[in-house]
Write a structure and sequence with these properties.
With 555 residues, this protein is of the alpha/beta class. A hairpin with a 7-residue loop joins β10 and β11. The strands form 3 sheets. It has a 6-stranded antiparallel sheet, with helices on one face. Strands 8-12-13-3-14-15 form a 6-stranded mixed sheet. It has a 3-stranded antiparallel sheet with strand order 9-10-11. α2 packs antiparallel against α3 and α14 runs parallel beside α15. It has 2 domains: 200 residues, Rossmann fold, CATH 3.40.50.300; 207 residues, no CATH class.
Length: 555
């Protein structure tokens, strides 16, 4: 339940606090006083899109705060727990701030929150029926949603949408498989040529670099033999080889160490140099003897390099690209060869998805048909109470040629507002006032089913008056037995049915317009109803009429 709404620097409102009570709350005031602005601020608090234009002229930011009693609201507690939050003594405070620069922020019980989370909470706290929203009744999706909500079929409808998406996905995959198969079939000969040419070459990764290295060694084999031989001789084999001279120097070093043992670490350095050079000399000898001089092998390498060069020119620029081209071509051909098996699998998936969709859609249809009969009967009971005594209401379910995401049928609300006329679609029959009364009838019925604690109606009374307005007021009061109801109205008949009456006045001070909110009771309320009646609010007749409206309240 909404306990208090605090508004600051929003539109023409500088500062306003709205306190609501259980039951039926009404807000009245002259045109332009700011009644609907209060509802707009509440909508902003509940997650509606923000705009810097909402900030009051001269202010830096607009702020809206709401305090809610959420004790026992399991869904709200669940949403809060997901964000590691919890109510404080059963209370929840939401806050929304919009800055002139367009930046907006939100808080839940003092903790920063996203606007989407604020909206998720708001949908569990308030059902806001805004100005002209009765026009949504003309939309097929709204009519279908109302029927599904009434018939407890919303979850089943969601399952139908999911099943339809699964079927659509299977069909898209089939279409994609067939498209790719057709493309591959058109170029299959070329792909086979690529695969055959590349696989016949038996290419190994990095082969071109290895061949280049081997060819360079074969081309310079004589130089390699000479150079390695010189190193072998100079380091190891010749009489004056470096290792022989180092052997003499080892003896010199030993004499030095006998005189000065402190230089013993020099022995390790010389020994290391000696053995390393000895090993290098031996290796150069082995290398010299191992060098090949093979013109035939060099010719074979050159032919192989020419083949790889041509392949890189066609499929490269690198050898890795050539191999990748061969793999892709092979994969495409494999797809063509396995397409029949893949298609069989997808067809099985499509059949299973279609069967699941048909089963769920059939179940949804049966539930909708039963709910449509019950809902039409309930609306028919309420219509006379809303001044539509001769009206007839029905829900028509027309089968579709194929099951869609929303089920196997269309849902259409039809009404005949006069006896003897055939029921036709709402858009062809109902006026704005009649639509708002039908919407109220539906809201009244759905209010018995949902758990949203607060219902807000802005201008639900458009296009009605007199006795019908009294009936609408009585119906709103009955809804308020199960929910907190907040109504913005200009009709005294509806205002007189309220448990709690608020008045917003537009005042001016030093050239600035601002609203003021008053809680009415006693004679103040009588005078406000007299003003709303349209006569002289101070005349005895208007005041007596206003008192009659108040005393006529049945509960």
């Amino acid at each position: 339940m909404l306990l208090e709404l605090r508004i600051q620097n929003y539109a023409i409102i500088e500062r306003l606090s709205v306190r609501l009570e259980p039951g039926l709350n009404v807000l009245t005031g002259e045109t332009g006083a700011g009644k609907s602005i209060v509802v707009g601020a509440l909508a902003l608090l509940l997650g509606e899109r923000a705009s810097a234009d909402l900030v009051r002229t001269g202010a830096e930011r607009a702020t809206v705060e709401g305090v809610f009693d959420v004790a026992g609201n399991a869904e709200v507690e669940r949403l809060l727990a997901e964000q590691a939050l919890e109510p404080e003594d059963g209370l929840l405070m939401l806050r929304r701030e919009v800055a002139v620069g367009g930046r907006n922020r939100a808080w839940v019980n003092g903790s920063p929150a996203t606007t989407s989370f604020l909206g998720a909470l708001g949908r569990q706290l308030v059902d806001l029926h805004g100005q002209h929203e009765h026009q949504t009744l003309l939309h097929a999706e709204e009519q279908r949603a109302i029927l599904d909500a009434y018939g407890d079929a919303a979850d089943l409808a969601a399952q139908v949408r999911a099943a339809h998406e699964r079927l659509s996905r299977a069909r898209r995959q089939l279409e994609e498989l067939d498209r790719r198969r057709r493309e591959i079939e058109q170029r299959a000969d070329f792909l086979r040529f690529q695969v055959e040419e590349i696989e016949r070459a038996r290419i190994e990764e990095g082969e071109d670099q290895r061949l280049e290295d081997e060819a360079r060694r074969l081309e310079h084999s004589e130089d390699l033999v000479k150079l390695s031989g010189r190193l072998y001789s100079a380091l190891y084999a010749a009489e004056e080889a470096v290792t022989a001279r180092l052997g003499e120097l080892r003896r010199v070093l030993e004499q030095l160490l006998r005189i000065d043992p402190a230089a013993a670490d020099a022995r390790e350095l010389l020994e290391s140099a000696y053995y390393n050079l000895e090993e290098l000399g031996r290796r150069m000898g082995d290398y010299s003897r191992a060098v090949e001089h093979d013109p035939a092998r060099l010719d074979a390498i050159r032919r192989r390099q020419d083949l790889l060069f041509r392949l890189k020119g066609k499929y490269g620029p690198t050898l890795e690209d050539v191999l990748a081209t061969g793999r892709r071509a092979r994969e495409e051909l494999d797809l063509l060869e396995g397409a029949a098996l893949d298609r069989q699998t997808l067809e099985q998936e499509e059949a299973e998805a279609r069967q699941a969709l048909e089963g769920l859609a059939g179940k949804l249809t049966r539930r909708r048909r039963k709910a449509a009969e019950r809902l039409a009967a309930e609306v028919m009971k309420i219509l006379p109470e809303l001044g539509l005594a001769g009206g007839h209401f029905e829900l028509a379910l027309a089968p579709l040629d194929a099951i869609g995401a929303e089920g196997a049928e269309t849902v259409e609300f039809r009404v005949a507002l006069n006896v003897g006329f055939e029921a036709r679609a709402l858009a062809r029959v109902a006026s704005g006032g009649e639509l708002s009364r039908i919407m109220l009838a539906l809201k009244t019925i759905l209010a018995r089913l949902d758990r949203i604690p607060t219902l807000v109606f802005d201008e639900i009374d458009v296009g009605i008056g007199g006795r019908v307005a009294l009936q609408v007021g009585d119906e709103l009061r009955r809804v308020a037995e199960r929910h907190q109801v907040f109504v913005i109205t200009h009709l005294p008949q509806i205002a007189s049915r309220a448990h709690h009456h608020l008045l917003v006045e537009k005042l001016e001070h030093e050239g600035t317009t601002f609203p003021r909110l008053l809680e009415l009771g006693g004679e103040e309320r009588v005078r406000e109803l007299a003003r709303m009646l349209g006569g002289d609010p101070e005349s005895t007749t208007s005041l007596e009429h206003a008192r009659e409206l108040l005393t006529a309240v049945t509960s």
